[in-house]
Design brief:
66% of the residues lie in helices and 6% in strands. By secondary structure, it is mostly helical.
Length: 274
């Protein structure tokens, strides 16, 4: 696909990106914003083991016996049991996901990844038809608002449903974010795009582990995981549509040229004129 320059010469899209800066300030700013979007699912999904942490139990078989520390199985078999600590700190304690209700805990991860399977199939195809930016904004809003509703839920069935919605938005949004970013950087830098996104995803896994070590309350951990997505909402207006999508799919060359000029201005390179 070609773009006309100010001198009437026709160049390819890859040459146009190289002319306006293949990896400049604009790409850096957008990379940070898109990685903030990636951070929320990375923190929340990899933080599931910390949300599902098994609480400590105390149990005894008669009122005359002293309380003794015990595991979940022993607590379920005992005549009397109670939590050793605050019940609401873990999902298991908050929603009584032990004994005959323990199976519900496994449905959290299952619902999340079932949603991810659906999301990656539909979101990327919708992004190919209607644009990368719109799906990025929609997906991030779904991630944030489903996450906030998880914090407000008072029943486990509602949380499982919302984790499914979160999963739908997760892989679809992350896939479109990667495509959007790879289409605004130079050809020689595209192999770094995947490396950068995966690096920050892995870094977020370490961050949530450290945070969960010092903060045991599941709602606090989930709130921390949602923070990057909430912050990114304020900067999404800076994310432009992919000029490659506009030129190849929509054939909207004036709008594509306008976005090229925004990138050129930010990177302090020469702009294209009509």
């Amino acid at each position: 696909m070609d773009v006309s320059t100010d001198r009437g010469r026709v160049i390819s899209l890859d040459d146009a990106i190289n002319r306006i800066g293949p990896m400049g300030r604009y790409q850096l700013y957008i990379g940070i914003i898109l990685n903030l979007i990636w951070a929320t699912p990375a923190l929340l999904i990899t933080g599931l083991p910390f949300l599902e942490r098994t609480p400590s139990f105390l149990c005894r078989d008669s009122l005359t016996q002293p309380w003794q520390s015990c595991d979940e199985k022993e607590a379920c078999d005992a005549e009397y049991m109670q939590f050793d600590g605050q019940r609401s700190e873990t999902l298991i304690g908050d929603f009584e996901l032990y004994c005959d209700r323990h199976y519900l805990l496994g449905l959290l991860g299952s619902a999340t990844f079932a949603g991810s399977m659906i999301g990656v199939f539909f979101f990327s195809r919708i992004g190919d038809k209607f644009g990368r930016r719109g799906i990025t904004v929609l997906g991030n809003c779904l991630l944030v608002f489903s996450g906030l509703l998880i914090l407000l839920q008072d029943n486990i069935e509602g949380i499982i449903t919302l984790f499914f919605v979160f999963g739908v938005a997760n892989t679809g949004t992350c896939t479109v974010c990667y495509i959007l970013y790879s289409e605004i950087i130079g050809l020689n830098y595209r192999h770094w795009a995947g490396t950068m996104f995966n690096f920050f995803f892995a870094l977020n896994e370490v961050v949530v582990a450290v945070f969960a070590y010092y903060n045991r309350n599941w709602r606090t951990i989930a709130s921390f995981a949602l923070a990057p997505g909430i912050i990114s909402l304020f900067f999404l207006r800076l994310v432009r549509e992919s000029p490659r999508f506009l030129a190849f799919v929509k054939k909207d060359f004036p709008r594509a040229r306008g976005i090229f000029n925004v990138i050129a201005t930010t990177n302090r390179f020469l702009m294209f004129t009509d």
